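Let us work through a complete example step by step.
Step 1: write down the sequence.
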Amino acid sequence: MSKHKIFASSLAIGASIVAMTGSALAQDAAAPAPAPEQAAEQGSAAPVSTSDIVVTGSRIVRDGYTAPTPVTVATTEELSRTTPSSIPDALNKLPQFSNSLSPSKSASNFSNAPIHGNVLNLRGLGTPSANPKGPLRTLILFDGMRVSPTEYIGTIDTNVLPQLLMQRVDVVTGGASAQWGSDAVAGVVNFVLDKKFTGIKGVAQAGISDEGDNANQRLGLAVGQDFAGGRGHILLSGEYSNNEGMLRSDRDYATKGYSYVGSVVGCTKLASEPASVCAPGGARNPYTIGSNILISALAPNGRITASSVAGNPYVGQVINNDGTTRPFNTGTAVGTTGFQSGGDGYQIPDTGAAVIPLTTYQAFGRLSYDLTDDINAFVQGSWSRSDLEYSTQVNALVPASQGVTIYKGNPYLSSALNSALTSATDSYTVGQYDAGQPTAIAKERTDYWMVNAGFTGKLGGLDWSATYSHGDSKHILANSGLYDSKKLYAAADAVVDPSTGQITCRVLLDPTYASQYAGCKPIDVLHGDPSKSTPEGYAYATGTSRYRASIRQDSFAVNLSGSLFDLPAGPVDFAVGAEYRKQTLNLTSNADPSLLDTAAERSAYFAGLRGVPATTNFYWLTNVGTAHGSLNVKEAYAELAVPILKDKPFFRELSINGAGRITDYSTSGTVETWKVGATWKPVDDLLLRATLSRDIRAPNLFELYSGAQSGIGIVNDLQTADGSYGSGLNQNVNTVTSGNANLKPEKAKTLTIGGVLTPSFFPGFSLSVDYYKIKVTGLIDTLSSQQIITNCYNAGGSGVAECGLIDRATPTSLPSLVHIVPANIAFLKTAGIDFDASYRTALGDGALSLRLYMNYLDKFDAQQYAGAPIAHYAGVSVVGSNPAGFPRWRGNFSIDYSNGPFGITLSEQYIHKMRLDIPGGPVPIEFVDDKVKAVWYTDLAMRFTVPQGNGNFELFANVNNLFDKQPPIIPGTVPGVNLPTNIAVYDFIGRAFTAGVRFKF
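Step 2: predict the structure and record it as tokens.
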């Protein structure tokens, strides 16, 4: 949809609304709209009393600003006002969230794992990786009930929740496992449902970027109604959202071929120095940004990389479209082995998605009924569907794992090439990357069901509940247009049929195997794009890799809370409960790498073929192993709040809070978590609070039981100074990642100390400041293939566990395979300070509201394994294929003013300056210029309310990134993997517009 069509539709919506409500415009101006509540304790119709609020920091009824655990509370009205696309998008602008995942914050080159939903990451509590685990340390609740995983890797796409019926979002910024269970290491995000909403409301909006891409639309409708004289209540909602996405090539800076490369060509070291000083990023070869950087191993049109004939003169030459060859143009040398600027190399094309197109459907229904004055029964259900479609890496022939062997006599060989092969069994190895063949396409669909039912009630002054929850996610993926290895190698081994004189597949002439390859058509990779030179052969040699995964969760929970007895300072409150939870995982695939583990399996599968590389898998990409497993969890908890003093000098209030939980995992045994906390009000205007907790995250089913997942990526395989180990090459290497059934729960200690100031001499103002410190031990993590190879190199090629994870034909050959397995190998420490300030006051005839969220990151350290160097992430923009950012300061400040029917909100996001690094190595990584400047983003939102009957329409317009601030240029170290910026931190869409209407009656 074009930009003009988007805005035409938006204006049409607005015009129709105005026409419908023309008579209302003559009425008196509407009363001033209320400013956002500083603690956001506002329902859909009217403010509710604090006694009705159960804030997520405790199982005991508490006001959000007096809970012992820090809680950030934001109304959905406030969030959607500044960020109308979605509530999770708005949350990700808060500084407490960092390195979250979304369709615009994850690469789309591979489709092995579904990491493209709106997945929140509180505190960014994880290390950068292709399948980041930080989000797994944030517990997601829906109205106080655990949300089951929406994807089989254990993550939760928060887009599945009914956003129109949300009342507020509670963000617990401290460990909460004792109250809420496993995964609440970084904290808890609780999406609180407006269970009593009555009426009808909805939204219709459309948006587009200033560049004319990233078009998006959203529609939603929600209704709530009492029945049976008010004893029953029903809620229904339906929502649709669509984002058409954008390509990397839609931004000019993404088409320049930027990449970090070594700045010194021909670097030399002193005899006493290790070879690593001349590696890219080494002390004598610091990284610099190069343009038009290409990988030298191949040429897009094709390159002969090897021959069985020693000294063959055509090895290394480029293949022209007419089948002839020419010398490889090495371009301009750079300080990274295997890379060049310009010439005949290749890079990952810029035609991949920068924002993955995503369509989401969501429906929700809830029915509640008061069986008696003290007992309420409810049942609710939610369904969502998410569809994504994007291009993965181009269909390629990449030696050594996916090169094609062309034998003497192949009719597509030029006479010169054929003559240079001596015997009938002699051959060439040919590689090719992006010769113009069709793009491989990945289509993902996730269907998610969640059902909750139960009873709540009162018994003798106590509150009780008994609930059942069921969650079911089905994820299917089809990656089409990939080389099917079995068919590829059959089709590439072309010969002339002596009986017909026609070109055919050699294997069809062998009666023993011909039936297995019926329909084989020869493919020509020696004349450019094979889809054009031999379309039938290309169609035969390509296929679709598929996998289907389901994860199911059933849980039962009972809870009881209330007051035990009174002390002079007030009642002693308690909460107790128990929960049983069971999860099952099933993943099936048509490309399970484990089925080609042994020589016998490979011989049977590729029977009748020759020239198949030893590490070739079923498909060029997306070889996903099966996974099957289940676990059950039994747990019980108790929480106690004891008032010590009240209304005494310097002790207006003093209370302590404690909680404990025992959890038994069928997979990893019994663990205990606990929390102690205290609140102290020396004066009415100041509340001081502190908590200390022990929290856990247990390994999920995918981490425990996942089958082999294949991957590929460029690694710099340094060679030792004596030449005895390492190839010295910088090329693609295959990897295989699998689960580990011996994983144990991660364990964390969290300390928070802070306070809340609500000065009586400054009405409407509130400020909370909280220090936090988290240490996680036994962190479940994996080393990347580059880390594994580098660690073995640093040990001289032997003597450390990492060397056993590398398969090499000889000590100095390029690795043929690197094995990656998760383990409890790491620890992580982080500390910082959260600031939350708000101010509300009347201004003229209107209302003014200010809100500031700010975070200072003092420390973020990680160690990959015992004895490894400490990686310091605080203040760092991490460079690489999986970028992440850890700025020292992040903030979000908003000013909202409303006067009569008109309202305006101005928001500022601040990201502090950072330095470039790739933490975790034995020596610092050097850059010619390692500084990244601070960035400000300005968002503007305007609204106009039109009264209509007993409700209103609200016309709104938003401009995101008002001044079109461009992201800093921060490429990776492999050409073309991502946009050349830190996609986890910075906005690369630029100025974008949204217009629409909200209504409520």
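Step 3: interpret the result. The first strand starts at residue 71 and ends at 75.
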